[in-house]
Each structure stands twice: as C-alpha cells, then as structure tokens.
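step=encode ok
step=design start
structure_in=
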C-alpha cells in the first residue's frame, strides 16, 4: 500500500507540475508560436507519460506483456520532450523532480546518479539563463531537490525490495505449510493404518485363527466318528465367530471394544470371560489349558484408551499362548498401583528367546503381535517387558502410567494406591 501511494503521488505530481508549466506559458508574455509549441509539446509529453504508466499498470494486473525492455527508451523520450519544453519556457524545469525518481527506478544506480547530476546542471543553467545572471538561490533549489529525490528514491527501493522479500517469505511459508499439512496427513494415515492393523491382529485375526484351529479339530472328530465331540467343537466355532462379528461391528461403528470397560470392575469381568473363552478354545482344539484371572489393588475407573490397550494386550498374549506355547497353565494378573496400572500374563509353556522376537511384521503378515503391543502401549507412555527362555515359560509385563490428566475426576490415585 505504501509503495502504491508513492507511485500514485509521483504520477500525480508529474501531471500537476506539467499543468503548472502550461499555465505559466499562458500567463507570461510569450509569442503565439512559443505558446503553441509549448502546449503541443506538453500534450505529447503527457500522452507519452500516460502511455507508459498505463502499460506498466496493465502488466502488473497480468493484462499486458512486460514493458521493461522498452522502459529506457520511454524514459529517454520523456527526457528529450522535457528538455525541449524547458528550452521554450524555464517554468517546465520543475518537472525534473519527478524525473529524478523515474531515473532512479528505471536505471542502474550509477547511471541514474550521473543522469540526475546532468539534469540538475541543466536545470541550474536554465534558471540562471532565465534570471540573466548566476544566483545562489537558483542553484540551491535544484541541488536540494536532486538530493531529496535520491534519498527518497533509495528509500522507495528499500521498501520495494522489502516487499519483494516479504512476498517470497510468504510464498515459502505457504509452500512449507502445505508440505507440512501433507506430511501430517500422511503421518496420520499411516498411524491410523497401524492402529487398525493392531486392532485387527489382536481381535479379528486371533478369532479367525481360533476358528481355523477348532474347525480342524472338529473335522478330526468327525473323521473319527465322534459326532458329540464334533458338535461341541462346532459350538465353539460358532461362539468365536459371534464374538468376531461383534468386534467387526465395533470397527464399522468406529468404536473400540474397550469403550464399555472404563468403569471400575468392568475390565475384570471382561478378563474373566476372556480366560473362559481361551480355555474353551483350547479344549475344543484338543488341548488342556487352565487359564485364571486375578486382580490386585483397589479397582479404579480407567480411561478408554488404557482399558482398551490392556484388553488387547491380554487377547494378544493369550492367543500366542494358544498358538505357540503348548502351555497347561496361564495367569492374567491386573494390578492397580500408585500412579500406574499393570498387566502380567504368565504361562508355563515352551518359552522362547526374547531377542529373536521380530521388531517388524514378517512379509506374510505374521510376527505383528508383540511389536504391535509394544507400539500400542508405548503410545500411552507405558512399557512392555518380556521374560522368557526356552523350556521355562513366559511372562509378559505391561506397565501404563496413570496421570491426573487421563484419570476421570474423583479417581486420582493416592499414596496408598487407592482412588
């Protein structure tokens, strides 16, 4: 806006000074031929100047080609017309002031300074010729005007360059903001995919795995002619499929299975049912697994994401016990401590080397369980520790901190661990 006002003021000043010169020509005692020539040259100068400013304005709005290749020729024509006018009448010498700005704007700095000095000498000479003798006043005015024009021209150029730099900075900021938004969107999509992968692995995939395992057992019972055992195992398949259907509907509704588990004590009931379902699945598969749940500390309401993470951890660990451990006994231990909640999953199975656990899923989609569990719990500021060795069973210990920010009001833990 400042630059626009300065440019408009420059053009208006040129027009006013040209009009003042024309009025002075008419007001002073000049010959008719001088008047006619002066007014005609003034009209031509006004037309040439207006043509150049209009072209530049249309170019700024994207309506005309760049006039910069013709700018010096245009300036030279304006100066020549002005010199001719000043030769006819000295009052046109004041047009030198806006011409100083044009030269600073269109010419290189050194060239512009030389041109301004030359125009200043011409104006001083014209003033002296008009006065009939050299005077100090006739020299001081043009020199001070030239100096002021140079200072203002440099200030204008500094404002212009600052405006250009600000536009470049804004353009860079917009590009950076767009790139950041794109990256954030991409990161959000990846995080959501990872979350869904963990949920599907810990719920639907484990359920399907149980269905496949029990279905094979039912087929074996049918092949052996034991229809009662086959029917019992098919009932287990139906129950597991029903649970999986419920999980799938929760996903479609954008809900998690932990939404109903926030109330104190509700999570314990879900763990008890999970142990019973695990025993039923193991029995249907032809193995014996004693799964028990125990609770330590005073139960307290948990945030949805915490209770969901604990439930998914228990589901994932018990599914691994069924699929890989060959255990006869498993224990889920839920503990409420001061400032944290814990879940320990123990089994007396074959055990394994924790160092061999993959940190990323395998190409066939397996190997996601413990890595996904660590990522899920880590997102809540918790940790997962695994203690195991071949032939010595396994303990998976989950720890999730409970801060004042993520506990429901009225359920903040006290020093003794109770709410």
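sequence_out=
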């Amino acid at each position: 806006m400042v630059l626009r006002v300065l440019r408009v003021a420059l053009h208006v000043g040129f027009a006013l000074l040209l009009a003042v010169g024309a009025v002075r020509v008419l007001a002073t005692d000049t010959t008719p031929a001088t008047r006619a020539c002066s007014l005609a040259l003034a009209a031509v100068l006004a037309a040439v100047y207006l043509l150049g400013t209009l072209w530049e304005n249309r170019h700024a709005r994207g309506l005309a080609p760049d006039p910069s290749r013709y700018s010096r020729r245009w300036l030279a024509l304006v100066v020549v017309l002005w010199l001719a006018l000043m030769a006819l009448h000295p009052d046109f010498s004041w047009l030198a002031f806006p011409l100083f700005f044009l030269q600073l704007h269109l010419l290189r700095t050194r060239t512009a300074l030389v041109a301004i000095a030359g125009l200043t000498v011409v104006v001083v000479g014209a003033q002296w010729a008009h006065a009939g003798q050299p005077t100090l006043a006739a020299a001081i005015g043009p020199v001070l005007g030239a100096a002021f024009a140079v200072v203002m021209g440099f200030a204008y150029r500094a404002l212009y360059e600052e405006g250009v730099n600000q536009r470049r900075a804004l353009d860079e900021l917009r590009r950076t903001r767009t790139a950041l938004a794109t990256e954030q969107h991409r990161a959000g999509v990846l995080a959501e995919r990872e979350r869904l992968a963990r949920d599907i692995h810990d719920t639907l995939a484990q359920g399907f795995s149980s269905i496949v395992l029990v279905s094979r057992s039912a087929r074996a019972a049918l092949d052996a002619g034991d229809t009662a055992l086959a029917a019992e195992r098919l009932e287990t398949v139906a129950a597991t499929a029903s649970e999986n259907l419920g999980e799938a509907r929760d996903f479609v509704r954008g809900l998690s299975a932990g939404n109903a588990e926030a109330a104190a004590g509700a999570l314990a009931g879900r763990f008890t049912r999970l142990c019973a379902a695990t025993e039923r699945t193991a029995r249907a598969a032809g193995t014996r697994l004693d799964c028990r749940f125990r609770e330590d500390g005073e139960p307290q309401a948990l945030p949805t994401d915490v209770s969901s993470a604990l439930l998914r951890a228990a589901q994932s660990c018990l599914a691994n016990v069924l699929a890989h451990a060959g255990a006869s006994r498993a224990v889920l231990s839920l503990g409420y401590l001061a400032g944290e909640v814990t879940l320990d999953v123990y089994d007396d199975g074959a055990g394994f080397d924790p160092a061999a656990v993959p940190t990323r899923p395998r190409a066939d989609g397996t190997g996601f369980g413990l890595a996904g569990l660590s990522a899920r719990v880590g997102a809540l500021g918790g940790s997962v520790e695994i203690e195991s060795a071949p032939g010595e069973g396994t303990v998976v210990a989950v720890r999730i901190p409970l801060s004042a920010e993520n506990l429901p009001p009225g359920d903040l833990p006290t020093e003794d661990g109770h709410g």
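step=design ok
step=annotate ok -> The beta strands are 290-296, 329-337, 340-347, 383-388, 394-401.
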